[in-house]
UniProtKB/TrEMBL annotation:
PANTHER family hit by this protein: DNA RECOMBINASE-RELATED, DNA-INVERTASE FROM LAMBDOID PROPHAGE
Stored PROSITE patterns: RECOMBINASE_DNA_BIND (PS51737)
Coiled-coil annotated residue ranges, if any: 303-330
UniProt superkingdom: Bacteria
Protein name (Swiss-Prot/TrEMBL): Recombinase domain-containing protein
Residue stretches making up the Recombinase domain: 31-174
Amino acid sequence: MSSLFLKDLAQKTHRGLEGRVRKGKSAGGVTYGYDVVRSLKGDGEMTTGERAINEDQASTVRRIFEEFAAGLSPRTIASQLNAEGVEGPRGSGWGASTIYGNWRRGTGILNNELYVGRLVWNRQRFVKDPSNGKRQARPNSPDAWIIEDVPDLRIISEDLWECVKARQKATRSEVIQDGLARPERAHRPKHLFSGLLKCGVCGGGYTIVGKTHYGCANARNKGTCDNRLTIKREDLEARVLSGLKDQLLDPDLIAEFVTAYRAEFNRLVAEEVKDRAIAERELGKTQRQITSIVDAIADGMFHSSMKAKMDGLEARKAELEIQLQSKGIEPPVLLHPGLSDIYREKVRGLTAALNEPTLRPEATEMIRSLLSEIRLVPEGDTLAIELVGELAGLLALDQTKNGPKH
């Protein structure tokens, strides 16, 4: 019943937003370059969906379009804006993706048609992924879009817009050649430690630079970090894997693991005891309610509503009894005497599996699960690698001991 209500509510909300857009008003959110305008209507209600051009931000929008049309890259534009202290759309720094966005989805400064006085709504819808319960965006077909002219909100000319679109099209054609994507110019393949690499200076991500090296994304895309050191991908992967194999099972780290493991086990046992006590109290209360109803019926005070109440209590009693049966307190876990050997063997097996095409995806996932973060910290003109993981704590690999600077 509740799901039907929510679905009906969502449909009504969507219709309401569509009606607002068809009047040239905002369906929600504040686009960079505009301010929300609120005023009191004759009926005492506040206006909604009204916007006005923010001249300071509008000048930045014009600058971005003009500089891109003149040949500057989004990365260069973002770096210059950050250097001048120009605040970005969310009050933070500018990035290349904030400017370039996704032309298919209409995201990014250069793809927002509101800047030429066209309000486009319903480009995408959100659906729930049944595997993880998260919302994911799905594009709608163009015939489902709602487009309204809002000339009062125009910031740039149609000619400048078309000039930018022409350059974007030319840039995209460089990525596709003979119908095939060129990886070095488009989406790069996911590597063993993609997403785990962090700059030890600014905390930003370390991403692929060119084809073979990793570098600080903030240093290159935003110009907000001074760390310009790079490292070869193959060397980084070899050193991290070596660190996992050779140092992860250091006696001190194993002792730390044992302590953490036992502490976590004790915490889980404590939670189990607490949950069991709560369930037992509720079971006792439920049983007393059942007894009270039975006594009332025996005294001749039966009412038709009692049956429904009794059925609910009996069902809840059965649930609690099943729950308590499954909450048996487990005995203390003894650490396997050969844990070090077993773990070392598994680590060696995982790294070897990286060379097997059929096993590589699973091995990659398991190796990545050993780490939560890989920090690349400048030490002079070299990089030190710090591995952060739930088991190992923090490990440091001195690049000067493992090869030359890259």
